[in-house]
Design a protein that fits this description.
The protein is of the alpha/beta class and 289 residues long. The chain has 2 domains: 140 residues, P-loop containing nucleotide triphosphate hydrolases (Rossmann fold); 97 residues. The chain is 57% helix and 9% strand. It has a 5-stranded parallel β-sheet, sandwiched between helices. Helix 4 links the parallel strand 2 and strand 3. Helix 4 packs parallel to helix 5, helix 7 crosses helix 8 and helix 12 crosses helix 15. The relative contact order is 0.11.
């Protein structure tokens, strides 16, 4: 855990879990935090293995969403994996990581619940969760919960500067990421595979486009069902632009423009939270950007 950038309270809770692990734990934080990295590091600590050893260890598996969710077939694979007899002397000899566990279908969650009711004694199931309300309460009640808190700004900036990035790049990445360490790392390393980096690139394109061009994008964006990620990216991109404009003299018009954009993005977030129809929400937003 020492190599990770973590809030002190988060580090303390993870260490406590390593010392006295339960059969299942939910690592809870927003998308972009870097939960998968924390989960794998936790698995390595529980199994007392290094990176290379974990890659070839037969009783470690990671399960990820397929086409946006985790279905019953994945849970059947997990069930089969749990039937394997483990060897060794360690108290914990098998670890399963379920990434984006909150994307499990109800059928899959009910199947996982049965596993949690009678878990193997030598096994820990680690679930990463972005939206707690998407998890069945019965699963939550049978899992330990660890909230992953973001470290403060100074600690975050210092960490990345010490890893060779310029203060200017780090400051920009901090604004763009909202302080989410995983996303911040993806921005600094130009990880174009990261979904939120892709959303930020899309947000930049939208903000540079005229009204007609934006409206032509609505149908495709609505089909992708990633409105929440796009709204986050629009908010962070606009906030970074506002901060930059406010730091320079003679940019009053730009400041007003970005204040206006943020106001409409915040309104769109509220509408999205109330389950507004995505196409109508995006149309309204794009007309006002």
């Amino acid at each position: 855990m020492e190599q990770l950038l973590l809030h002190l309270l988060t580090r303390k809770r993870l260490r406590a879990f390593i010392d006295t692990p339960s059969h299942a734990v939910q690592l809870i934080a927003p998308t972009g935090f870097g939960k998968s990295t924390v989960a794998v590091t936790l698995a390595r600590a529980l199994l007392n293995l290094n990176d290379k050893q974990l890659e070839s260890y037969p009783y470690f598996r990671r399960f990820t969403p397929d086409k946006g969710n985790i279905g019953i077939e994945t849970v059947r694979d997990i069930t089969t994996f749990l039937k394997l007899r483990t060897t060794g002397q360690g108290k914990i000899r098998r670890v399963i990581v379920i990434e984006s566990a909150d994307s499990m279908t109800i059928e899959a969650q009910n199947a996982i619940l049965k596993l949690l009711e009678e878990p193997p004694a030598d096994t820990v199931i680690i679930m990463t969760v972005s939206v707690e309300t998407h998890m069945l309460s019965t699963i939550t009640s049978r899992s330990q919960r660890i909230l992953l808190h973001s470290p403060d700004r100074q600690a975050t900036v210092t960490f990345f500067v010490q890893h060779g990035y310029s203060e200017e790049r780090v400051a920009t990445a901090y604004l763009m990421s909202g302080g989410l360490v995983g996303l911040m790392h993806a921005i600094l390393t130009s990880d174009t595979e990261h979904p939120l980096v892709q959303a930020i690139d899309q947000a930049k394109t939208i903000l540079k486009s005229d009204t007609f061009e934006r409206l032509a994008m609505v149908d495709e964006i609505a089909k992708e069902k990633q409105v929440d990620q796009l709204l986050f990216a629009l908010k962070q991109t606009s906030q970074a632009a506002l901060t930059h404009a406010a730091s320079q003299s003679g940019r009053d018009a730009a400041v007003r423009r970005w204040h206006s954009v943020l106001r409409y993005v915040h309104r769109a977030e509220k509408l999205h939270a109330s389950s507004a129809q995505p196409k109508l929400l995006l149309t309204d937003l794009f007309l006002n950007l």
